[in-house]
Design brief:
Layout: H1 2-11, E1 23-24, E2 27-32, E3 48-56, E4 61-68, E5 71-76, E6 84-90, E7 98-103, E8 106-111, E9 119-123, E10 132-137, E11 146-150, E12 153-160, E13 166-173, E14 181-185, E15 198-202, E16 205-209, E17 215-221, E18 226-233, E19 242-247, E20 253-258, E21 266-270, E22 278-283, E23 293-297, E24 301-305, E25 311-315, E26 323-328, E27 349-353, E28 361-365, E29 369-374, H2 382-386, E30 395-398, E31 405-410, E32 415-422, E33 427-434, E34 437-442, E35 449-457, E36 460-468
Antiparallel strand pairs: 1-26, 2-29, 3-4, 4-5, 5-6, 7-8, 8-9, 9-10, 11-12, 12-13, 13-14, 15-16, 16-17, 17-18, 19-20, 20-21, 21-22, 23-24, 24-25, 25-26, 27-28, 28-29, 30-31, 31-34, 32-33, 32-35, 35-36
Length: 470
């Protein structure tokens, strides 16, 4: 009955506002679907594409920036359950690919669609009231498929100029954020690379996903404004279309997605020796899952957008033994969770952003809108917590968010251990108690962000998500 109802909803393109979304260890906080009316594309109703996040330090507010089929939304997500649109910047219409990134208080918007396009730069400093479009031109380039910003450099993949000539990848200086300056085209040094679909850049080392040509690693040499090659990973087993990647914080491992054909796996490789990159593991939640974009947190977590199967969080801390820690299916109309992949393969969860100070995850679904997700349980291995059936005492903390003094209360007759960790599992505070806990902890010395406060007694653990704001 449920499957039949879903098929009817898809057939008539109803918005699934009240839909139950399959999930494990990730909970829904808020959902917004502002792109209504006739601004959809194709029979599958594509409305949204790339998304990113921005933290406004002056006002302690968080925003989602979401590309849409007709422009870009700037959405205030500070109130998690009732997100609201602060501003909208119109752009080319009938667009499938629109990507956004931020640098300082500026947002950079690229579009990749046939016909006339523009590259846009938006000043966000006046949010939440409004934004200002400070650059809207095709002078630098006409089309860009993807982008990445590292330090003060903007990398654009899949560049097309207004005269229809192309460049596989360009790098621009953002020394003047409103006037990017072209430093180099990759084809000037490596004309053999025909296309860079996406790139991950850290400290001028570029992990370039070059489609059917595979993965290449380049170094941008700032002193000479030239590219040199550090390594490559091509011709690997069942290689398909190398789409996008993410690097662990220690720089030892890279996770990347082969997007095409549909059903290609997620790949985890060892990049400690760039001249001899080695496969560690391939995996996917379902045989039919198509991964799209990965986002890595530290050396432990991978947040992966998986089209029709939604958002997956993997524990990647043990290479070769990657495990699902949680998922949230933003597209229950089809996919592995209902046992049926049908119609257009590339629909559902496009991208995500897991780096806001609050610890929430933003996830853009092409048909269903922007999801605001709470990954606390996924980041804290609740399976081990729930494995013991003995009921624990209630852990109470106040206030939350907190800036200085945190009150902690826990009623027990047993010895217990209190720990305060960040979402990467790093321990910032550890204390032992005998009996009930009732004290105030000064957290003013800790950096702003999301933490987990846990208390363990008699093999049972209680935990609370704590947000520290200064």
């Amino acid at each position: 009955m449920k499957k039949h109802l879903l098929y009817i909803l898809v057939l008539f393109s109803f918005v699934l506002k009240a839909q139950t979304y399959p999930n494990q260890n990730i909970s829904l906080l808020g959902l917004i679907d502002p792109n209504t009316g006739t601004t959809t594309i194709g029979p599958d109703g594509r409305k949204y594409n790339g998304c990113w996040g921005w933290y406004q330090t002056s006002l302690n507010k968080e925003y989602a920036i979401v590309g849409a089929s007709h422009g870009t939304y700037f959405i205030d997500v500070s109130n998690l359950t009732t997100p609201s649109v602060s501003a909208f910047v119109p752009g080319k219409t009938n667009v499938t690919v629109r990507e956004v990134k931020t640098y300082q208080n500026y947002c950079y918007i690229t579009c990749d669609e046939g016909g006339t396009n523009t590259f846009q730069i938006v000043d966000m400093s006046t949010l939440p009231a409004t934004v200002t479009l400070v650059y809207n031109s095709n002078t630098l380039f006409e089309r860009g498929h993807t982008q990445w910003i590292s330090q003060d450099k903007l990398y654009i993949g899949g560049v097309t100029y207004s005269n229809t000539t192309a460049s596989s990848m360009n790098v621009y200086s953002l020394a003047t954020p409103t006037a990017p300056l072209l430093l180099r085209e990759l084809k000037q040094d490596f004309p053999v690379i025909s296309y860079v679909h996406d790139m991950f850049v850290r400290n001028d080392t570029v992990f370039a996903s070059c489609g059917y040509q595979g993965l290449y690693v380049f170094k941008f040499n700032s002193a000479t404004n030239t590219f040199s090659q550090l390594g490559s990973y091509t011709g690997y087993a069942s290689a398909t279309y190398n789409h996008s990647s993410g690097l662990t914080q220690d720089g030892k491992h890279l996770l990347f997605c082969d997007e095409s054909p549909a059903g290609s796996p997620i790949r985890y490789v060892d990049v400690q020796n760039l001249s001899n990159i080695q496969s560690v593991q391939t995996f996917q939640p379902f045989i039919g899952t198509t991964p799209h974009n990965p986002f890595l947190i530290g050396d432990k977590w991978a947040v992966v957008s998986c089209y029709q199967d939604g958002l997956y969080i993997y524990d990647i801390s043990q290479p070769g033994n990657v495990a699902v820690s949680g998922y949230f299916d933003t597209y229950p109309q089809s996919g592995g969770n209902i046992g049926n992949y049908f119609g257009q393969d590339y629909r559902g969860n496009w991208g995500a952003y897991p780096y806001l100070p609050s610890g929430i995850i933003l996830a853009s679904d092409m048909q269903n809108g922007l999801f605001i997700l709470d990954p606390t349980d996924a980041f804290n291995n609740p399976v081990s917590v729930k494995s013991n059936s003995t009921k624990s005492a209630e852990l109470i903390i106040y206030p939350n968010p907190v800036s200085q003094n945190l009150a902690v209360n826990y009623n027990t007759v047993y010895a217990s251990k209190l720990e305060l960790k960040n979402i990467l599992g790093q321990v910032f505070l550890q204390k032992q108690y005998n009996g009930s806990i009732s004290e105030t902890i000064d957290v003013s010395g800790f950096e702003a962000g999301t933490y987990i406060l846990s208390i363990t007694e008699q093999g049972n653990t209680s935990h609370k998500k704590l947000i520290i704001n200064h």
